[in-house]
Amino acid sequence: MKTVGVVDTAFSRVNLGSIAARALRDTGGSIRIQRKTVPGIKDLPVASLTLFREGADLVMALGMPGRAEYDKVCAHEASQGLIAAGLKVERPIVEVFVFEGEVENDRDLSELARRRTEEHALNAYWMLFRPEELSHRAGTGARQGFPDAGPSGSHRRKRGFGNGIAKYA
Amino acid sequence: MKTVGVVDTAFSRVNLGSIAARALRDTGGSIRIQRKTVPGIKDLPVASLTLFREGADLVMALGMPGRAEYDKVCAHEASQGLIAAGLKVERPIVEVFVFEGEVENDRDLSELARRRTEEHALNAYWMLFRPEELSHRAGTGARQGFPDAGPSGSHRRKRGFGNGIAKYA
Amino acid sequence: MKTVGVVDTAFSRVNLGSIAARALRDTGGSIRIQRKTVPGIKDLPVASLTLFREGADLVMALGMPGRAEYDKVCAHEASQGLIAAGLKVERPIVEVFVFEGEVENDRDLSELARRRTEEHALNAYWMLFRPEELSHRAGTGARQGFPDAGPSGSHRRKRGFGNGIAKYA
Amino acid sequence: MKTVGVVDTAFSRVNLGSIAARALRDTGGSIRIQRKTVPGIKDLPVASLTLFREGADLVMALGMPGRAEYDKVCAHEASQGLIAAGLKVERPIVEVFVFEGEVENDRDLSELARRRTEEHALNAYWMLFRPEELSHRAGTGARQGFPDAGPSGSHRRKRGFGNGIAKYA
Amino acid sequence: MKTVGVVDTAFSRVNLGSIAARALRDTGGSIRIQRKTVPGIKDLPVASLTLFREGADLVMALGMPGRAEYDKVCAHEASQGLIAAGLKVERPIVEVFVFEGEVENDRDLSELARRRTEEHALNAYWMLFRPEELSHRAGTGARQGFPDAGPSGSHRRKRGFGNGIAKYA
What we know:
Chain A has helices at 16-26, 44-53, 69-89, 106-129, 131-136, and strands at residues 2-9, 31-38, 58-63, 93-97. The radius of gyration of chain A is 16 Å and the shape is globular. Chain A has one domain: Lumazine/riboflavin synthase (Rossmann fold), CATH 3.40.50.960. Chain A has 5 helices and 4 strands, in the order βαβαβαβαα. The longest helix of chain A is centred in the C-terminal third of the chain and has 24 residues, at 106-129. A 4-stranded parallel beta sheet of chain A has the order 2-1-3-4, with helices on both faces. Chain A is of the alpha/beta class. In chain A, helix 1 (16-26) crosses helix 4 and helix 2 packs parallel to helix 3. Chains in contact: A-B, A-D, B-C, C-E, D-E.
């Protein structure tokens, strides 16, 4: 039995925490899920530490930065904080950020958010229970939320969802 | 009884600390407020630590960066410092920054400052006393100071104040 | 009796440390001053720690970044280091940076440097001996070296020196 | 006998970890290799710490950031995290990042990735077993993956592979 | 007797470590020099820590970032790491970075590298043995490698080498 902390935000426009929790359960792994919601992405680093202190073996930190330039600065600060938090406790934090600006409309945003979160939940499961699954995928150009880039020199393989959602620019 | 540290700046052009203190009292929560004013936003991280050492369970750090490019750099440094401070003591710091450049005149600035501070005070209250209120708002596109963005795919809901203040650009 | 560390640089084109020391004495506070000069601003963070270990209750870290783009990067790195140093020892560092590019000629540079340093020395004095002075100034738009911006909605008050020195851009 | 941790990513489009492991073995040094694969480059800092805690004397952290602007931000965050991780345990992390944007097609990408990884594996070997090899190369303008720049004032020497791959811009 | 750690890189196109070592000996100070060479500037922070653990009282960290935009990012990361390393052990690191882009040809690069390194070696000597020399130079506009800027309001004094090398832009 492993504990996964799942922390998301009220700022996000998609309930990423619920998607993550469902996807973690769908892995079939022996996982206890501990959830928490904070106002915005800058609150994720400290909340992640709290979840670790409450017993989490890994934390999924989920957020959806807005379209403004300032939102990108906040995401950068939050990412640095998440890495610092992980280094403090020496346990992994799987960052799942979905930028509003990656897609053009709400429908694509919901789809992207769902796919990326599900694929990162699978990553979290593999990190805890089946690290060999990640080893097998070393250098395969895996992407979360968009079609896989595939290994260099190959016809691009698709692991996931090859549905033409605009690539992040 | 919980203690909330409230630290603001002399640099700010609105008395954010007083607004925060009043809003915290208005929540009706059993809150002891510990106040402190520093010269500018770069002084907030160390002052926040001091408030934690004096017993704060959560700190609200309030500042108003100016319009110049350099002010944004200072805000970025202050934000990184606040996250580092929170990670050190493993307790939450609610950052409330109101940029002068978000609005065009003093009247809108005062309004924005009041609304954002009040809504963040409510967030602070929820974090300490009613975390389930934040859980209910996961993924709802909550904003502080501006109308809520609302969840993806919805007609945009407004939690707060839908009054046409220019959106931060 | 409080000890204030004063650290400045050989790189600076104005003797900021001497101005700070004189201004601290002029406050009339019971202050022991401990001085130190380092080559450049990136040396300020470690030197500040040294001053704290030698007994300083607060450190004033003074520097004058040049006009080049690279100088701004160095100032940014120094500022982050000063915040990290303050967080390590949990004592305040009053950063006093005067950018050559804030003004157009040497006369204005000397004036700006003197005023900003003097006003920050007063801030340092207040932080150590009279924190209520800072509390009274919360949200008043105080500036160091330039005229105060004043509170939002007011006719702009001037605390200091309303002499038309070009505003930092 | 020394232990080298080798951590790479599933995001990378070339199996950098395998190249590194082979190149480490080819040095003939008495090296035990401990491998690990994580989803992306932001996961490298914590994974490096884990490898150190499991006994690594040095870690090679390998990643391949994509072409988008955001990928560069992620690489920057990952680099800062790797330096912080190295400072925490006080042991060296050899960062091997190959940016997709350094070259124009997949063939050159595979070649660049192989060469840079092999040359950094040699660096890692020298750091652990033959530091004098690095001392001999002080100031020689050594590059990994591209031809050496050579010492200033010399006809540019080539240590490695002078095959005209486009220089990183 | 003081120990100075001198760490440089194979990436540099000038043997900065040798220049530094010679200049330190030329000061006549009672200095033991401990040398080390690493592949590139990002390896300097951890190597500096190692030199401190082996007894260094001060470390000179020398590097030569290339002309590409990415090289500046690496230099920024290395600088932040050097400051963090200094803060960890609370001892000074004298950073000596010479950017290829500061000058236009190899001859000027070699000259600049030599002068800046020599002047920083003198700074290192003063920091350890004669801090009053730095105090005397507070606010004098000292520069390393280029002519001194001189104090504000003065006819610009030249401490060093007034030979018209292009100013860093």
